[in-house]
Design brief:
With 115 residues, the chain is mainly alpha-helical. It has two domains: 74 residues, no CATH class; 38 residues, no CATH class. Helix content is 48%, strand content 0%. The structure holds zinc ion (ZN).
């Protein structure tokens, strides 16, 4: 049984009260704002849509969890050159084709498939 909009809002307010609220300014272009509003509604078909901050907060939590998992998997590997545990932030071997800092790090950055 899903939570009602009122229940979700109450939970959000409770979380925010416990953690402290932070108001940030977010600059989006027209296209991104249309995408955000679309997603707020599309994620709750036939129900009250998420509000913008609620969806952004949920996306951050989901994304953060995914990134942490990715970094945990990454930490099981080492740079082939310096044998440091990944991710390597700084290495004198940077530029060497075998060093992770040269090209391996591209797997960590956020990429968007463009059609
Ligand atoms: Zn290295």
């Amino acid at each position: 049984m899903g939570k009602s909009a009122a229940e979700r809002k109450a939970e959000q307010r409770k979380r925010q009260a416990a953690a402290g609220n932070h108001k940030i300014e977010l600059i989006l272009d027209d296209q991104e704002l249309v995408m955000l509003d679309h997603d707020c509604a599309a994620r709750r078909p036939g129900r009250d849509p998420y509000d913008r901050s609620e969806l952004i907060a949920l996306m951050i939590r989901k994304y953060h969890g995914e990134l942490k998992k990715q970094l945990e998997v990454l930490a099981e590997s080492q740079c082939e050159k310096c044998l440091e545990s990944l991710p390597v932030n700084d290495c004198p071997c940077q530029g060497d084709a075998k060093c992770w800092t040269t090209s391996g790090w591209h797997k960590v950055k956020l990429t968007i498939d463009t059609p």
